[in-house]
Design goal:
single chain; disordered N terminus; binds beta-D-glucopyranose; 25 strands; alpha/beta; 795 residues
């Protein structure tokens, strides 16, 4: 028995004889052993990790990209192949890792072939850390607009700013985290907690960014759902947390939004820090070689999260193409690994080809601006890329603001003469921010912050922004009050403001809920802010609460107080914050934002999904045992009434829903599986996007103000025999902006259902399977305000 076989006989699986192991699994073991020579020495001797790999099946070899997805990809790959045919092995390997340069990540230039260094830069809400760049709303705010057109314009404007500064690869958009864990520290960077909504967001933003000529770097692939122990040795010695998800949840929840962005041609994907099913995401052959590069036909390149590469040979063979920001475990070692046969030369050529193909795909070889990224201590001429983006930022800021309570017609204001303002969140801080390139703070300072002492327009860490200025709520309301020749009183410091102003029309109280990269939140509310709201409400008969929050914020401490007459979830709106808010308060814009997550009555209602898993084991686990049941799906299953459900938001007018009709597009019987003879193109099997069903209804404005309704379609997928889990009673499968509608005006709304929308991931067939049977469906104003019910029968 050879050494490997002996090793396998020591594993704890009964009867797991090495002779029966698939060849590729043995390769994995060889890879593991081989990489030990490339891994950094550890001070603590860890328990063996070999047994843990059983949860993540080996998929080798890494499939080379060939550009077959579209003529554009074919051309891009052909050009890339020509370019790399002139490169030496040393040049090839140098392309696969980061080098010093002006950007957050830089590839090397190869001047003799006119290949420039490629510039990688954060982040999902715009260029960070620079002067004369805009601070766009965060992803979660954009998701709350439920507006495809705005999502796309957002991507386009962000893309234009990246391009203007010579950034080749923008590090965003984000669908990992998706928001599985209510207190997740980075949920605000992503596009909401529902895969369908996040998928539309990912596709639209990707399209916008790439239309501007910039490669979109989708992140973080995959199952990056908590910050606690996202990396090795965080807090205590040991490996990063392992997100352990089943095959169905993997596809139907976490991969889903990435599929949409890939289908739009995304050129790069960033693998995440943590382990996924026990194997580090940047060396997880199942997720990279298997799901991304085979099932989803990815044509571009996989870049590691910064310092996220955990081994040399293992990551190369598992499908990582580029390690950032330095040489990582590759550098000269990769050449050595090719020479000693641990990594094939084809694999390294494929890495380089994929990187250059993304560059050619976006035509960046044609007159692309040079990087213009500077430290704040560097003297340079301004490189102004802001254009008129402030206007779009204000529009998205307003469109993503969600009105959740409005009694006695408190809002919109009707020419108020006298307003009061309270709370630390109404103003900008006296000193801008310590970390010059992150308004919301960096990774170092945010542990334990519940709130930002100043108005919150973004979260902290690499997804943060550097606003050119911040229009605070105070500034915007001063402007309005001054114009109306009114009176304003304020107190931004006291927890218990003392002076009542009995003549005031309304009191506004501003609070926030902060989150940032590297840390999960400590809770979903803070007592200071809750007391502040109650104290203001005790003084003022019409108290309007405005919450800027980096995710869910519970409100039950005061929501039913009779003096709390209006409440707005104002999200993370970016630099025009005050203007966006004022346009809602004064009714210039009728609110149509909808919650992209569920706000519970009590934190405990989130059950095990309130906090990420915290264990100090050497190999900590986070088991996604809830499967498909995150956010509203979990509340529906457990029959827990949320305070404000997913998709909820009020308007200043009312809408009716009538005349539901449904039909199948195809008359012949539909096959259960997509046609296996059709090759995969980037994003997945093309037939998954075939329209198979259509749902229509009429939406009418029944109130007395013009307004836009977000009509939402929820679908129940029938369970099938042999399912390893049930399917949620309802899942979002469509949304449409109806409007703006004048009072009395009606509009027909149409939702198209694709094959994927009606399919489940069949774990045995390893395919998306269209179920036969009756699909109940509902159209309504939220995940619980369901106005019309019908069904679709698939035979
Ligand atoms: C973050 C990424 C980011 C990268 C570069 C990492 O810590 O997880 O999202 O793009 O840093 O700043």
């Amino acid at each position: 028995m050879d050494y490997l076989s002996q090793l396998f006989h020591q594993l704890p699986w009964p009867g797991f004889l090495v002779e029966q192991l698939p060849f590729s699994f043995r390769n994995l073991a060889i890879v593991l052993l081989a990489t030990s020579s490339l891994t950094r020495p550890s001070t603590v001797s860890p328990p063996s990790e070999l047994p843990y790999y059983g949860l993540s099946p080996p998929v080798y070899p890494s499939p080379p990209a060939n550009g077959s997805s579209s003529p554009r990809w074919t051309l891009a790959h052909a050009r890339a192949r020509t370019a790399i045919s002139h490169l030496t092995l040393a040049e090839l390997t140098s392309l696969t890792h980061g080098h010093p340069g002006p950007c957050v990540g830089n590839t090397p230039a190869i001047p003799r072939l006119n290949l420039p260094a490629l510039c990688f830069y954060d982040g999902p809400s715009g260029v960070r850390g620079q002067e004369f760049v805009s601070a766009f709303p965060a992803g979660i705010h954009v998701a709350a607009t439920f507006d495809r057109a705005l999502m796309r314009q957002y991507g386009r404007a962000i893309g234009a700013e990246f391009r203007g500064r010579g950034v080749n690869v923008a590090l965003g958009p984000v669908a990992g985290p998706l928001g599985r864990v209510a207190t997740g520290g980075r949920n605000w960077e992503g596009l909401g907690s529902d895969p369908y909504l996040a998928g539309i967001g990912m596709a639209s933003v990707t399209r916008g960014v790439q239309d501007a000529g910039v490669v979109a770097g989708l992140k973080h692939w995959l199952l990056n759902e908590q910050e606690w122990r996202r990396r090795k040795d965080q807090g205590t010695p040991g490996e990063a947390v392992s997100s352990n998800a089943g095959d169905r949840a993997l596809r139907e929840v976490y991969v889903w939004p990435f599929m949409d962005a890939l289908r739009e041609g995304a050129g790069a994907v960033m693998c995440s820090y943590q382990r996924a099913n026990h194997s580090y995401a940047c060396q997880n052959s199942k997720l990279l070689n298997g799901v991304l590069k085979t099932e989803l036909g990815f044509e571009g390149f996989v870049v590691s999260d910064w310092d996220g590469q955990m081994a040399g040979v293992a990551s190369a063979n598992a499908g990582l193409d580029l390690t950032m920001p330095g040489p990582g475990y590759w550098g000269d070692h990769l050449e050595q690994a090719v020479r000693n046969g641990s990594v094939s030369e084809e694999r390294v050529a494929d890495m380089a080809e994929r990187i250059l193909a993304a560059w050619y795909y976006l035509d960046q070889e044609k007159a692309y601006p040079l990087p213009a990224l500077y430290d704040n201590l560097e003297k340079h001429l301004p490189v102004d890329v802001m254009d008129d983006h402030a206007q779009l930022i204000e529009e998205i800021g307003a469109a993503g603001t969600v009105l959740v309570k409005n009694v006695n017609g408190t809002l919109p204001f009707n020419k108020p003469r006298f307003l009061c303002m309270y709370g630390y969140d109404a103003i900008v801080k006296a000193v801008p921010w310590k970390n010059h390139d992150r308004y919301g703070g960096g990774y170092e300072v945010n542990f334990g912050w519940n709130t930002l002492n100043g108005t919150l327009i973004t979260g902290g860490g690499s997804g943060s922004t550097t606003p050119p200025y911040v229009v605070s709520p105070f500034q915007a309301l001063q402007e309005r009050v001054a114009k109306d020749r009114g009176v304003l009183r304020w107190d931004f410091y006291s927890e218990d403001p003392e002076t009542p102003y009995v003549n005031a029309d309304s009191c506004l109280v501003f609070i926030n809920a902060y989150a940032g990269e590297s840390f999960d939140r400590t809770g979903l509310a803070d007592e200071f802010s809750d007391r502040l709201v109650l104290n203001v409400a005790a003084l003022c008969a019409s108290t309007i609460v405005v919450i800027h929050s980096a995710g869910i914020r519970t409100v039950d401490a005061w929501i039913d107080h009779p003096n709390v007459t209006a409440v707005l979830f104002a999200g993370l709106p970016g630099q025009e914050s005050g203007h966006s808010l004022a346009s809602i308060l004064y009714g210039d814009v009728n609110p149509s934002g909808r919650l992209p997550y569920t706000v519970a009555r009590n934190e405990s209602d989130y059950g095990p999904l309130l906090n990420g898993s915290v264990s100090f084991d050497y190999f900590p686990d986070s088991n996604f045992t809830e499967g498909l049941y995150i956010d509203y799906r979990a509340f529906d299953r457990a029959d827990i009434t949320p305070r404000f459900e997913f998709g909820f938001g009020l308007s200043y007018t009312t809408f009716s829903y009538t005349a539901l009709s449904t039909f199948l597009v195809v008359s012949t019987a539909l096959s259960e599986f997509p046609d296996p003879s059709i090759p995969i193109t980037q994003g997945g099997h093309a037939q998954l996007w075939d329209i198979v069903g259509v749902v229509r209804c009429a939406v009418a404005n029944t109130g007395d103000r013009a307004g836009t309704e977000i009509a939402q379609l929820y679908v129940g997928i029938p369970d099938g025999e042999g399912d390893d889990d049930t399917t949620p009673v309802r899942q979002l499968r469509g949304f449409s902006r109806a409007g703006p509608l004048a009072p009395g005006e009606a509009l027909e709304v149409e939702f198209e259902l694709t094959r994927r929308d009606l399919s489940v991931w069949d774990v045995v067939a390893q395919q998306w399977r269209l179920r036969k049977g009756e699909y109940p469906l509902w159209v309504g104003a939220s995940s619980r305000d369901l106005r019309l019910q019908g069904s679709l029968v698939v035979e």
